[in-house]
């Protein structure tokens, strides 16, 4: 009996030891403070005692309300959407203070109270007068315009508190453009009236597609993710990654890549996942011998990549199926190869860095038993059934997500290590409601952006301008669109990020003749990598806070590790075969093989090591060869293959000479 207990203790030690290391290696850094600094969703008011119970119950009731409305409500869409936004504004002010660092318990300023009540009342006014407002056409009184202005202002303020300024700066630009140049009404009051009416009282503004999709689909998936986390699936993923890759060279970094990819696809937050899994993996990587910047960058790049990892993709996979009008199974099949290439690039770089530094893995006796972990495979049942229900078209996405929530509760009661109880269920519901605030607010502002663009005709002008600059050169349009996506995606959660990109930037590429699926994947990828792209690389900065590394160096290292995310989207726009679009198995096999060699060449050239250290000429040749292999075409593939294989062969020969020289 004692022997069995010792074995179980060894197998479970890895997480506890790593958690302790997280505190030691970071100099006692408080993980919560890192979250509050880099993740706006974590900057919340401090509620204690009875007020805390009240706020928790309000959030939980909101989650239950969303599930009910999604499944059973038959009332007007305007009623559903305005009541949803009223609750988002109410909870936004209840949860988020007006600036960081306000931790006074049970305190909300009188100004916040007034703003919260006025903002909530503005949307409820629409809710309870929806029929009259719809029937009154364009005839709006000034008091209704003032109500609309208050509602818009309240949404903007909530967004500033929980999402940040980048998306608001973009929205402000388009609104100012509409008020000064874009609208034809000669009087300024007339322009204000027209703008507010369209943004607040029609489904072409705040209540447009992003908020509609958010209230109908996203919230239910967010609640599902909250329940899934309570089942202990994150710990399962980390232990599983340890058992698979922990013993190999540089094992902890490989564990970080695998576990962060698995956890990230469910969490829907690059920053949140970087901090939660990074608190375990980053100290492990540092202890193994990786430099601080590299350890933080691996975690940030992997957590960001988790958002593009099928079959969940941070819930964006389900939204993409709805946006582009294809079955969910089609989205997943298209997402597989790009995701494999992304993580292959990170994995190869991590491996080469480990070989260059001569790093070892985690001792076998400190790793969890893979066969013991298999007994917990039932934790994946909710995810598996969700995928089966949706991909098989057995039910709607929202119904499938709701049933998956029930399954996760059942699984949670079965798992003894993280057993669910009524308190955890209430916590999951309130956590889901809290997470919905950020996404709902961001989607509302996305509606303002798309509404302002549409009503001024700027959408066509922007598209025409980019198409005009690009001419018949698709690559130029892709570069310009990429820059737009990175700016728009700064600090925005995954699902809201995709909604914004789908509404604003995807039409540019579609106009250029890019297949609709490729256009949506392209803008989704570049919206996501904003989390590791300087200067606003929140996931990289969060990882650097844990690793005690230079934030900017960490961001650039993360961008280098995630080089596939900057290359692969160009591949599937230039050669849609990578997304299984209008292709044959032979063409898919060809582009997959050349892409793997290309990513390997890029990773090795940027790392500057393969078998032995590379000189500058070999590095350049290897990188050029990798890029040529990535660009579709027989000539470029042939030249690229020669360069990459030739460079690697040269490196292999040099390494043998180095070994012989050392032995002599």
TrEMBL record:
It comes from the Bacteria. Pfam families: DctM. The keyword Transmembrane helix applies. Residues 151-585 form the TRAP C4-dicarboxylate transport system permease DctM subunit domain. The chain crosses the membrane at residues 53-73, 79-96, 108-128, 140-158, 165-184, 204-228, 335-352, 373-391, 397-415, 436-454, 474-496, 508-526, 561-581, 587-605. Keywords: Membrane, Transmembrane, Transmembrane helix. InterPro entries: DctM (IPR010656), TRAP_DctM-Dct_fused (IPR011853). This is TRAP transporter, 4TM/12TM fusion protein. The lineage of its organism: Bacteria, Bacillati, Bacillota, Clostridia, Lachnospirales.
């Amino acid at each position: 009996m004692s022997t069995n207990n010792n074995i179980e203790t060894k197998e479970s030690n890895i997480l506890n030891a790593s958690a302790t290391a997280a505190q030691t290696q970071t100099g006692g850094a408080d993980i919560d403070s890192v979250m509050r600094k880099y993740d706006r969703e974590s900057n919340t008011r401090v509620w204690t005692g009875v007020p805390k119970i009240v706020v928790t119950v309000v959030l939980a009731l909101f989650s239950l309300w969303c599930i009910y409305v999604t499944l059973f409500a038959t009332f007007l869409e305007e009623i559903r959407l305005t009541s949803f936004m009223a609750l988002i504004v109410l909870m936004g002010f209840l949860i988020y203070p007006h600036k960081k660092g306000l931790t006074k318990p049970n305190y909300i300023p009188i100004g916040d109270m007034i703003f919260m009540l006025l903002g909530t009342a503005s949307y409820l006014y629409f809710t309870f007068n929806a029929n009259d407002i719809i029937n009154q056409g364009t005839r709006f009184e000034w008091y209704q315009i003032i109500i609309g202005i208050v509602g818009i202002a309240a949404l903007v303020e909530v967004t500033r508190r929980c999402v940040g300024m980048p998306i608001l700066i973009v929205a402000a630009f388009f609104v100012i453009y509409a008020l000064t140049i874009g609208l034809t009404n000669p009087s300024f009051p007339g322009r204000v009236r027209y703008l507010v009416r369209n943004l607040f009282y029609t489904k072409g503004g705040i209540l447009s597609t992003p908020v509609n999709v958010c209230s109908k689909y996203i919230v239910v998936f967010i609640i599902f993710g909250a329940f899934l986390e309570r089942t202990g699936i994150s710990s399962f993923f980390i232990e599983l990654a340890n058992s698979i890759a922990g013993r190999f060279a540089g094992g902890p970094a490989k564990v970080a890549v695998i576990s962060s990819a698995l956890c990230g696809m469910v969490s829907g937050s690059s920053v949140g996942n970087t901090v939660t899994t990074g608190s375990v993996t980053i100290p492990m990587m540092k202890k193994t011998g990786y430099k601080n910047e590299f350890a933080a960058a691996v975690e940030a790049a992997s957590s960001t990549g988790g958002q593009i990892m099928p079959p969940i993709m941070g819930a964006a996979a389900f939204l993409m199926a709805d946006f582009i009008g294809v079955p969910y199974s089609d989205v997943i099949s298209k997402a597989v190869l790009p995701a494999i290439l992304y993580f292959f690039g990170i994995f190869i770089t991590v491996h080469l860095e480990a070989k260059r530094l001569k790093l070892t893995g985690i001792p076998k006796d400190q790793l969890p038993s893979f066969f013991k972990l298999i007994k917990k495979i039932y934790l994946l049942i909710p995810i598996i059934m969700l995928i089966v229900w949706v991909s098989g078209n057995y039910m709607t996405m929202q119904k499938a997500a709701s049933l998956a929530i029930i399954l996760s509760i059942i699984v949670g009661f079965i798992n003894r290590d993280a057993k669910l109880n009524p308190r955890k269920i209430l916590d999951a519901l309130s956590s889901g409601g809290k997470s919905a605030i950020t996404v709902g607010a961001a989607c509302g502002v996305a509606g303002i952006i798309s509404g302002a663009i549409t009503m001024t005709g700027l959408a066509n002008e922007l598209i025409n301008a980019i198409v005009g600059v690009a001419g018949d050169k698709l690559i130029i349009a892709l570069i310009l669109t990429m820059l737009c996506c990175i700016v728009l995606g700064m600090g925005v959660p995954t699902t809201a990020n995709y909604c914004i990109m789908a509404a604003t930037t995807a039409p540019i590429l579609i106009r250029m003749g890019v297949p609709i699926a490729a256009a949506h994947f392209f803008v989704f990828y570049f919206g996501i990598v904003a989390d590791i792209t300087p200067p606003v690389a929140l996931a990289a900065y969060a990882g650097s806070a844990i690793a005690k590394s230079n934030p900017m160096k960490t961001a650039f290292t993360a961008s280098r590790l995630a080089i596939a995310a900057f290359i692969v989207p160009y591949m599937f726009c230039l050669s849609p075969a990578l997304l299984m679009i209008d292709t044959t198995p032979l063409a898919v096999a060809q582009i997959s093989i050349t892409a793997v060699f290309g990513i390997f060449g890029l990773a090795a050239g940027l790392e500057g090591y393969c078998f032995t250290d590379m000189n500058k000429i070999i590095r350049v040749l290897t990188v050029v060869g990798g890029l040529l292999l990535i660009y579709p075409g027989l000539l470029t593939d042939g030249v690229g293959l020669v360069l990459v294989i030739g460079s690697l062969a040269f490196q292999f020969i040099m390494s043998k000479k180095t070994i012989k020289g050392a032995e002599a």
